[in-house]
Amino acid sequence: MPAVEDVGMVKRCPRERAGLVTAMARGFVGRCPHCAEGRIFGRFLKVRPECDVCGLELAHHRADDLPPYIVIFVIGHIVGYFLLETEMNYDVPLWFQLSFWPLVTLLGSLALLQPVKGAVVGLQYALGMHGFATLPLPRISGVPQDEETQHGPGDGRAADGAPGFGPA
Q: How close are the terminal C-alpha atoms of the chain, in Å?
């Protein structure tokens, strides 16, 4: 069953914000963290201004340097482990080591960078960070919507109005 239902001319988007793990998983596979139907990326690492399906604004995300740090951490540990295992247990020529491991590092980093950036955008959406506090209204096909429903720290539902996970 798709997350966004098309009923006549009105697209019905989910009214509630997706959970943390769900939003990050949707972002990891390159889908909109709100509706799971639209795509996040227009190019390799360029986030679209808004979701084509539900209209969620994506342009205000602030992924910045977190995705490269996560990729460096993960790929560095994986390649470092296998490099040490290879060096300690096998007699591999130096020319092979100096040509193979940088290539594996480069290809692994390029393969993981876009999914990690999508997951970071999903994380920001799930936590209502950087303008993700508002959710889009259901869209009528071909007619842009100007107003959005407020969901998040500033919507009046929070008891103290403070950002974060809630009372400690």
A: 37
